[in-house]
Amino acid sequence: MSAEDRPAATWIIESAAEVATLSPAGATDAGSLSVVSPGTVVLAGDRIAWVGAATVAQAAAGELPYRLTPATRRLDARGCTVIPGLIDCHTHLLFGGARHGDFESRCAGKSYEQIAREGGGIRHTVAHTRAAPDEELLATATRHLAGMLALGITTVEAKSGYGLAHEHEIRMLRLLRELDRRQPVDIVRTYLGAHEVPLDQPKESYLREMLERTLPLVAAEGLASFADVYCERGVYSVAEASTVLRKAKALGLQLTVHAEQLYRTGGARVAAELGARSASHLEQATAADLEALAEAGTIAVLLPACPLYLGDNRYPPAREALSRGVPVAIATDFNPGSAMTYNLPLCLTIACVQMRMTPAEALLAATAGAARALALGDRGAIRPGLIADLVVLDTPHWQQPLYHFGASYTRQVFKNGELVWSVSPRPRAIPGELPSSP
Ligand SMILES: [Zn+2]
Question: What is the pLDDT of residues 428-438, one digit of tens each?
């Protein structure tokens, strides 16, 4: 390759203590978490052009397969770690209102189901979401997305499901599309009309509306790439879930299911039978359910914040899933009732300490595994050709944000090759170098 044919570097992230490159897309086993130390990452436009152990001298001498130009920007990453942008593959981030009352009731000992029966729960959020003006919903969600970006999250899945009527569900999906345009975090949209049973319409007629009106419009307008159903006792049965998901599949949508959360209902089997991309929750899944998911190649999206926040010690069966060959992703389930957090790194710590995942498995589950759950083959690792979504952490150890839970180590975030977030500058001591005296 002659020097002119080489891609022009737009950014060089230089001499990081560690670059956790992770893996070829799709691999989610801990063995594929590879770390380059020290490592340099080169970006060309919106893509990763090169990653490896390069010295500044090699780069300057033109020994590497990219070209420096006067426009090339350099970032000194000594003492830092570079990881792929995190991917939160299960959220309900667009909602109106707040459920402080539910929180108080749960702290006083009431169950999630009891609160829902008394008028709290999802239906409370539905009333507030329907009533909120577009700009108010967008402003709140934009603030949440800014918080996510500051934690290193560069791609988010977001569901409808607080509309529970044709026009309200369509509005939610259009607002999510607008939200995607307004800020840097990519949003993958999921239609979750079957999130709860509406109070103002008989279930049968709502299901008919979904099948005959909403799903065809969602597919025709490309309003969502996934369809989801909350398959749970007292919400949607296995038969109802299966009907909705079959229709969605016939219309070309990919499938995901909320399955086996509070009770074992058979939702995981439905996911496996229909070839769903993923099944979420799975706290009550049996060994046979996990085997069916493994056989179907369905990804288990495990949501550790949920049992933590609900004060329930039944954590999702990560080890059982992994030992049976079920690919695992970890997500927040960010929602105003059962998991009011978008802190994905914190969820990874919970996955490690409560579900006995290794830190490497957890990091893979929120990058390569989550990319796989969303069918995104262009991200989730640091490899030439992938989208340049990267996080620079202010620590020389990639495990630090999991180990020191609740703290943020984000120093810079790159989205599509652009620096979109940076911590305010502060003095940094570089190992081995003393600041020069004035
Ligand atoms: Zn959920």
Answer: 545 544 444 33
Spacing, Cα 193 to ligand 1 middle (Å):
12
**Cβ–Cβ < 8 Å for 330, 302:** yes
Decide: 351 and 332 in contact? Cβ < 8 Å.
Answer: no
Gap from CA of 78 to ligand 1 centroid (Å): 39
User: Could you report the per-residue pLDDT of 215-243, keeping only the tens digit for each?
Assistant: 999 999 999 999 999 999 999 999 999 99
Q: Where in the chain is the domain with CATH 3.20.20.140?
A: 86-373
Ligand 1: distance of its center to the CA of 125 in Å? 14
For residue 191, the surrounding DSSP H or E stretch is: strand 186-194
H/E element, 148: helix 134-150
* From the candidate CATH numbers 2.30.40.10, 3.30.2380.10, 2.60.40.10, 3.40.50.980, the one assigned to the domain spanning 3-84+380-422: 2.30.40.10
pLDDT confidence tier of residue 1, bands split at 50, 70 and 90: low
Instruction: Tell me, in angstroms, the distance from the centre of ligand 1 to residue 323's CA.
Output: 24
Taking the centre of ligand 1 as the mean of its atom positions, its distance from the CA of residue 191, in whole angstroms, is 12
Q: What is the pLDDT of residue 309?
A: 94
Do strands 299-302 and 47-52 pair parallel, antiparallel, or not at all (unpaired)?
A: unpaired
Question: Which residues of the chain are in CATH 2.30.40.10 domains?
Answer: 3-84+380-422
pTM exceeding 0.90: yes
Domain 86-373 has CATH 2.40.160.30: no
The 10s digit of each residue's pLDDT in 341-400 is 999 999 999 999 999 999 999 999 999 999 999 999 999 999 999 999 999 999 999 999
Q: How close is the Cα of 90 to the center of ligand 1, in Å?
A: 6
CA 91 / ligand 1 centre spacing (Å): 6
| Cis amide leading into 38 (omega within 30) | yes
Strands 153-159 and 18-22, bridge-based pairing: unpaired
